[in-house]
Amino acid sequence: MNAYSRPQDVALPTLSPEWVRRWIEQTQDLVILLDAQDGIAGVIQNGSFATADVLHWMGQALRAIVSIDTQPKVRPLLENDVARADADTRWRHLNLLGFAGNTIPVLMRYMRLNGPQGPARVLCCRDLRGEETRNNRFIQAQQELETSHQSLRANLTALELEMQRLRSQAVTVDQLVARIKQASFAQVIEETHQSLQRRCLQSLLNESAGDHDRAAALAHCTRQEWADLVLSLGLR
Fold first, then answer.
1. Is 48 helix (H, G, I), strand (E, B) or coil?
2. pLDDT in tens, 199-230
């Protein structure tokens, strides 16, 4: 912590307890005063913490009001007095436990201040709930964006498959058109006629359950005529 001196001709204000309290309320989210046994002797806050939570902390040991996963940080926190010149001034992340068991994430720094009535052990705390909410919203936005990207990739894959299918059909149609252009009109008519005949005979054969004699009767032709048609059209 850096300390600066002012010119002697500038009068400094008297730091009364009420002045100090108001200064803390305006500059810190939460200040916890500790007794010699690391118990909560007092709490000063800026109004963002619930009264039930603050009253719940009073009189308890510091380790009792933080989550189990952050309890190991309590001892290193209290061993690092940031008021010393050689101290590590970094904040430590701990989770306070509210009256209802809710978790309140905070950043903490410990300092020991000497005053006319003896030393005061102070924990300065920064409320991280607003930052946590922003982080959660950011994570949610990332997840929604990833979901949108996955949906977009799936749609693009489906679109590519559909385009491939359409291109394949287009090739088939192009080949048919080229064939029609190359063939004579009479040839096209003949192939169409044979195709219709083939479909009709196949339908009669299906209706006759594969019985060629019955199919010939349905076609009103002799068995030999039927056999010739079947052979010429490549039916079985």
1. coil
2. 776 776 666 666 777 766 766 677 777 677 76
13 in helix, strand or coil? Answer: coil
- Provide the β-strand partners of residue 113: 120
Residue 122 buriedness (CB in 10 A; 0-12 / 13-18 / 19+): buried
Tens of pLDDT, residue by residue over 84-142, are 888 888 889 999 999 998 899 999 999 888 766 777 888 989 988 877 667 667 777 77
Residue 82 lies in a domain: yes
Supply the range of the domain harboring residue 109: 17-135
Q: How far is the C-alpha of 43 from the C-alpha of 33, rounded, in Å?
A: 6
- Pick the last residue of a domain from 81, 116, 135: 135
**Helices 185-207 and 223-233, interaxial angle, to 10°?**
120
Q: The tokens 């799936």 sit on which residue?
A: 154
